[in-house]
Write a sequence for this structure.
């Protein structure tokens, strides 16, 4: 299984609801989660895989198409699972999840400021929801691998940093950015008990670091 982290827009929105009367509707309990979308040999997104390993099949009539075959896409998904192992999907939005690169691979190391909404470890990913000041320019995000060090107690620490190039965009209004660091990339280098530090430049704190268990 190859992992492709392509940028895809909201793929579809299912306008499904149940009418109680002319003025009242009952909506199902929708889950909003960052997870993986798996495609089949024909390039249809046929299955959702959560970071805990739970899988949900997507009904054939709802499957997004024209994707890379036999691949995984990292997405923000709004869905409703049912007892039959299927999930009604309401939206799918791309989550930027490139593999970290060492500093020498960047021509210029940009660390423009963001605001942190949340950062958390989930399965084999470190997930970020950021608030970014934008107007009309494309912002570029990446992850910088600053190396693995060995601590006095024998454990290891992976140091990562957020790359953010705002391309001189005007700071007009906030827009959310969803990102995931693929920690499975380090499965042969880190073990439970090791740690991860993630550095980023923020409006509120300046340069700040968050630490997570591997």
């Amino acid at each position: 299984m190859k992992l492709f982290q392509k940028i895809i827009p909201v793929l579809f929105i299912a306008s499904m609801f149940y009418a109680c009367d002319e003025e009242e509707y009952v909506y199902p309990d929708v889950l909003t989660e960052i997870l993986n979308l798996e495609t089949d040999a024909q390039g249809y997104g046929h299955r959702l895989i959560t970071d805990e390993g739970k899988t949900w099949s997507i009904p054939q009539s709802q499957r997004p198409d024209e994707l890379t075959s036999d691949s995984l896409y990292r997405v923000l998904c709004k869905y409703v699972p049912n007892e039959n192992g299927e999930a009604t999907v309401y939206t799918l939005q791309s989550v930027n999840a490139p593999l970290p690169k060492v500093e020498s691979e960047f021509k210029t190391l940009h660390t423009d400021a963001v605001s942190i909404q949340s950062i958390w470890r989930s399965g084999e990913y470190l997930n970020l929801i950021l608030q970014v000041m934008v107007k009309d320019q494309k912002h570029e995000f990446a992850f910088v691998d600053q190396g693995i060090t060995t601590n006095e107690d024998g454990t290891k620490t992976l140091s990562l940093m957020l790359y953010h190039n705002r391309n001189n965009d005007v700071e007009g209004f906030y827009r959310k950015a969803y990102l995931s660091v693929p920690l499975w990339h380090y499965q042969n280098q880190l073990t439970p008990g090791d740690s991860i530090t993630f550095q980023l430049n923020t409006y509120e704190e300046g340069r700040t670091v968050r630490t997570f268990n591997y």
In short: The chain has a mean pLDDT of 89. Residues 113 and 206 are 8 Å apart (CA to CA). The longest strand covers residues 71-81.
